[in-house]
Sulfite oxidase subunit YedY
Amino acid sequence: KRIPTHMFNGYEQEVAGLYAGMDLKANF
């Protein structure tokens, strides 16, 4: 499947935010 760049970038940013929040919860 080919994913449009703008959609992929938006998804990547969303996931990055989720992982950042998860990392903070895991560290503290």
User: Anything to note?
Assistant: The chain has a mean pLDDT of 68.
